[in-house]
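Predict the assembly for these two chains.
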Amino acid sequence: MKNPATLPGRVLWNAFFWTYERATWQYDVMVIAILAFVWLTPPDWLNDPMAHGRGPIGWLLDHLR
Amino acid sequence: MTFTGFIGRICMFPLRAIIAACVALRIHPNILTFVGVLINGIAAYELAHGRFVRAGFIMIVANIFDFIDGKVAVELGEVSKFGGFWDSVIDRFSDIVLFIGLIYLYAQMGRTDYVMVASFAMMFALMTSYTRARAESLIAKCKVGFMERPERIVLFMIGAFTNRMAAVLWVILVLSVFTVADRVIHTYRELRGAQREVVA
């Protein structure tokens, strides 16, 4: 299998078919992306059984309206 | 220095003191490994009852034991093949017990959807370990894929402390699926390459 030719394709490919070590800048970027998903995604969007509300994204959308 | 490397260095300060204390007390590393799984069992109990923050603190303690056992073994000159095997086996129990805690919680709440998410996440978390172990009986190294045990543990703690366990389970599930796929593909490529060399 070959890596995709386009840049976004390559980024996604390298993110999912991961070969980087810990404590590299690629690892940092992945960690930040995961933390952003965990903390910013509104619990209601995921039907979280233990947490409720619209989270920071919902708050932001409310203030932008 | 990277951001994650910096956090790792900060965490090493207290851990060094704990390792030194265990070495001074000559605590056998296999006992530390076993204590770790027992404490993880208590964390699972707390998760099962929806007490996430308390579970988070208990997981920190459990995983200190889990982390230092190898280092204590080196310091005490007690490194052995059985120790490595024991550590791997006990780690799987630690993994499973935390997922079971969450499965129990969601089942009690009547949330079949998250019972399934947690079950699939558990299945793929176990398969990441199995695929690597099995691959390394055939090829030299199969250290590919992002979602390994340390990442899972840190994610569990983040989910527990910030009450974002649903998001954490989705991350563990999706990235574990890719890690398993990554390992299967990597092993296939390596074995095919080796076969070609033999034919040539």
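Chain B touches chain A through 36 residues (CB under 8 Å). The CA atoms of residues 5 and 11 of chain B lie 10 Å apart.
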